[in-house]
Amino acid sequence: MDTRTYNLGNAVFHFFHIAGKQPMAVLWIALWQALLTGGLTYLAWLTLGDFYIWMFQLAASGAEPSETEMLARMGGVMAMVPLISLGGIVIALMAQGAWLRLLTRQEIAPVFPFRLGGDELRLLVTNLGLIAVGIGAYFAFAFLIAIVTLGAVAAFSGGGNAEAGLAAGLLVGIGLLAFLVIAVFLSVRLSAAPALTVLEKRIAFPAWGATKGVFWPVLGGYILTAIIIFILSFVVGGVVNFALLGAIWPVLGEFMELAQAGYEPEPEEVLAIFAETLSSAGTITALVAAGLLSVLMRSFLDAIWHGVGAYTALSLQTRPAEDVRG
């Protein structure tokens, strides 16, 4: 018999259910996502950070860079930025594919869990479809708001600018509320498309029927998941911030001592103090640990969010979702 069950609690905790069954798979995917994301971030820092530090040093010293040097440095930055952006997209796509394979089919690629294969290509098309819907909705809303605002101003222009402005503002406010409702509705109805694409190994966009009859449970699942993510982000973010504060505390302490002595350091001295502190082994260790913890947690949060869509896709199968997942 074609039976569909949808349990809100199972949807919210679907990731934790899979993590309990395959903890090493979850840790392996998260670790690789953190390492790749951290490596890309480090590459971006080497590319962009060096350029901005050079600009700051020039501004501090009052020197004017030569046109040749400026073009050379800007050329290197402009050449690397598209590559870094493309790398970020590829990593995000591979991570999404790896997580959804685990959360829907309970599969993980051997050794290196990330791939650029059929799942990722289908996900790319699905994600582009979701982006196109979002962009189309945004421009349609902007166009309608512009027409409504101009119409309100024209209709009430005879009564004075205050009345026209009030009417236009009221209509814009109503329009914003309506757009928010429509955006939430579309987001929920299309939310299972990536997971269904991976589960059924086909381009499932827009997967409109995946949330048919379960709109409110799916919406509630995402709201509760967002609350869980917020709490975890707050806790882990506090730990990361304390680690970063400990890393730069020597710099702050030195500046406090200089301020108490009534001495105002020159920009070159400020840079030298930062460079000395940031190059120490303890500071580097603290920064690396904080960075890895941050991106590792980001990986888990991504997976937790994907869990609701994965459960929604699984609930479409002809057996109860608990049996499918077990």
Give me the number of helical elements: 11
String of helices and strands: HHHHHHHHHHH
What overall form do the CA principal axes indicate?
globular
Oligomer: single chain
Strand content: under 5%
State the separation between the terminal residues, measured CA to CA.
19 Å
Largest sheet: none
Whole-number radius of gyration?
A: 26 Å
In terms of structural class, how would the helical and strand content be classed? mainly alpha
Low-confidence stretches: 318-326
**Strand element count:** 0
The amount of helix comes to over 70%
Overall mean pLDDT stands at 79
Question: Can you offer a commentary on this structure?
Answer:
This protein has helices at 8-12, 14-21, 23-61, 67-105, 118-155, 161-189, 193-200, 215-260, 267-278, 281-314, 321-325. The chain is mainly alpha-helical and 326 residues long. α3 (23-61) runs antiparallel to α4 (67-105) and α4 (67-105) packs across α5.
